[in-house]
């Protein structure tokens, strides 16, 4: 049964077709496309009707046989929406763009073959997460090998990636003649589960099996460095998400809590709130803008969470009017959905970032499906 909440999540689309569990979903930020990836090693792209403020209709546009030899664990669109990155258990990262033939066809958002324009190699074992910076010039990846890599790219006027080089600390690795390897970030002591870029600054966060979150900056005179370790979770941190304004960071953990971290000094972040509402591991957290018309200094958006209990929760975040640096935001559970993927774990939940679709979110489950939901008043 749903909790006594003012909103509910109603089904919009049930996206089937994968032959194994679906690990991740990613909304294209500029086009009506939703990407899914699976243990079946494929990526599927779904298009949807583009009229804002209406319930969209989804249809399969194309399926990409990625060539990855193992599970495709995560994917991420560049901010321009032109390039898709895939992270695989085969330790490689694929960079995908639509072929020129498809680019010339007007009105066909995913027409033409999607081609792997480069393969980024360097991780020693399973890649678990991937994320683009807000500028689209930086790409971060993380792995079971306990490392985080920062890749620097060059984008064309169209937003496509024309060249990439890796920023690391290891002088020995060369992916091929197009890549220069400069080092890796080796701050975690265990498997790194997720990476996320600050929405307005080039600050990178990573989450790990070592129960911590690390924060990184680029020193113009040297290399990337870790400037903060956020500790407090008592078990694996599976997922992290920045607030849309970048003032807060949410983290989801195996300890069944979501922690809200706030910047209290230039390079210092503290936990100011703890959200509880799951009975098992929380695998995914996403922070969206929230409902249209709620913009303002006090409204911080909506947080969605999902995990091993099959539940999807939605929280409304508010900042008190007389907030100080360390004042915690208030949170209210506004929607709860039980058994989102029947009895299966929910591996991922993501809000749609496109304006006009603020109440739309997608989930991925162990049942081999991706699903789309819309939050509406009861």
UniProtKB/TrEMBL annotation:
Keywords: Repeat, WD repeat. GO terms for biological process: iron-sulfur cluster assembly. WD repeats lie at residues 15-50, 65-97, 120-152, 185-216, 230-262. GO terms for cellular component: cytosolic [4Fe-4S] assembly targeting complex. It holds the Pfam family WD40. The keyword Repeat applies. InterPro entries: CIAO1/Cia1 (IPR028608), WD40/YVTN_repeat-like_dom_sf (IPR015943), WD40_PAC1 (IPR020472), WD40_repeat_dom_sf (IPR036322), WD40_rpt (IPR001680). CDD domains: WD40. Essential component of the cytosolic iron-sulfur (Fe/S) protein assembly machinery. Required for the maturation of extramitochondrial Fe/S proteins. Belongs to the WD repeat CIA1 family. HAMAP family: ciao1. This is Probable cytosolic iron-sulfur protein assembly protein 1. It comes from Bondarzewia mesenterica.
